[in-house]
Write a structure and sequence with these properties.
Blueprint (H helix, E strand, L loop, with lengths): L1 E8 L2 E8 L2 E5 L1 E5 L10 H6 L4 E5 H6 L3 H6 L3 H5 L4 E5 L2 H5 L5 E2 L4 E4 L6 E4 L1 H11 L3 E3 L13 H21 L9 E6 L5 H12 L5 E4 L5 H14 L6 E3 L6 H9 L4 E3 L2 H7 L2 E4 L2 E4 L19 H5 L2 H10 L2 H27 L3 H13 L5
Parallel strand pairs: 4-5, 4-14, 5-6, 10-11, 11-12, 12-13, 13-14
Antiparallel strand pairs: 1-2, 2-3, 7-8, 8-9, 15-16
Bound molecules: zinc ion.
Zinc ion binds next to α12 and α14.
Length: about 375
């Protein structure tokens, strides 16, 4: 397991994460495979749109089908028929989002959203679950804040000290032969407070994590400064993953510019299922009546399978009639759009054209140049 930097310009860089299941050329958008499946897409479709890696969710897989079953199946990649690199997140965010989650010193008590049974998640349990799931890249179990919109300085500081205590336990548990082919990311927290973000970055930088996840960032525009502050502290030779943010193309530009290497987000496929499709001129809703007799592709400049073979009128028809094919084609298009956008960003760093790409893309997409 290695991370190699190819080119560095300010905080931005291109590089490659080498895993036992193949390489991830960074910056990269990691495809969401929350429950060991990419919604509406087969693995060949994911590969055809340029997907290099998939991120699954520890919380969801613990509940269904259970981590022991995935271990028996030969691990996540084998189980889902994917031969590339895989990530798991720790489950912390999903568990803390549950209504009855109760934070204790050693972990979080929560009730399964499926059958209501009471369960405990601790750093040790998360590490063991992630080992059994068998992804290449793991995330430390953390305590995210601000997901419910209310996290003042003292609450955030308190949560941060818990995150740090748990990170140490994750690191201690993630040792030995059984983790030899799996690498661990520490998850930097600190909410919206620069002081706490810096403190957290310094804490994680002093520990031997393979890489860093950046948690609890919900808005790229507000986060740019925070991301930059963390990247200035975090060792450049370790990869940085911005957790769960990539709903907007702007997030991706701001993230890369401020030192992020990989991204994941469920938004591209989720929006696709609602008929909200990315185009270079902004997002459109394909269910709109104005597309009834529009026989042009979703985007002329997109070379995904959907745009090469189908038009807006047909896509609208699929959504109007509730045909499942609509979900697959829309998901192919949206995921392709985002994965390929990050690939273009990567190429622009190599060619020294990042700012040109950023300005021209954002101007067309948002109708203005956005910071
Ligand atoms: Zn397309």
């Amino acid at each position: 397991m290695k991370f190699l930097i190819e080119k560095q310009v300010g905080l931005m860089r291109t590089g490659v994460i080498k895993t036992p299941h193949g390489e991830i050329k960074t910056p990269a958008f990691v495809v969401a495979g929350t429950r060991a499946a990419v919604k509406a897409l087969t693995v060949p479709e994911v590969l055809a749109l340029g997907g290099q890696a998939i991120l699954a969710n520890t919380y969801h897989l613990m509940l269904q089908p259970g981590v022991d079953l995935i271990e028996k199946a030969g691990g996540l990649a084998q189980f889902m028929g994917f031969s590339g690199a895989t990530f798991t997140d720790s489950g912390g965010f999903q568990i803390m989002s549950l209504p009855k989650a109760k934070v204790m010193k050693d972990g979080v008590m929560f009730r399964s959203h499926i059958d209501g049974r009471e369960m405990l998640m601790t750093p040790e349990i998360s590490m063991d679950a992630q080992r059994k799931i068998g992804a290449d890249l793991h995330m430390a179990f953390d305590l995210p804040v601000g997901y419910d919109g209310e996290a003042d300085f003292s609450k955030t500081k308190q949560a941060l000290s818990t995150t740090h205590a748990w990170a140490t336990k994750c690191l201690e548990a993630h040792q030995g032969e059984k983790f030899a082919k799996q690498a661990l990311y520490g998850v930097v927290q600190g909410g919206k407070f620069t002081e706490l973000r810096k403190e957290s970055a310094e804490f994680f930088d002093a520990l031997p994590f393979f890489g860093y996840g950046i948690g609890s960032i919900y808005n790229a525009r507000e986060a740019a400064e925070l991301l930059g502050a963390m990247s200035q502290i975090l060792s450049p030779e370790r990869p940085r993953h911005l957790l769960g943010m990539g709903a907007e193309p702007l997030d991706l530009f701001v993230g890369v510019e401020n030192g992020m290497d990989t991204f994941d987000c469920v938004a591209p496929t989720r929006q696709a299922r609602n008929g909200a499709l990315y185009t270079f001129d902004g997002r459109i809703n394909i269910k709109n009546a104005k597309y009834r007799e529009d026989f042009s592709p979703i985007d002329e400049a997109c070379d995904c399978y959907c745009c090469k073979n189908y038009n807006k009128a047909y896509m609208r028809h699929l959504f109007q009639t509730g045909e499942l094919l609509g979900l697959t084609l829309a998901s192919i298009h949206n995921e392709h759009f985002v994965v390929q956008l990050v690939k273009k960003i990567r190429a622009s760093i190599e060619n020294n054209t990042f700012l040109m790409l950023k300005n021209s893309f954002l101007k067309r997409y948002y109708g203005k140049i956005t910071p």
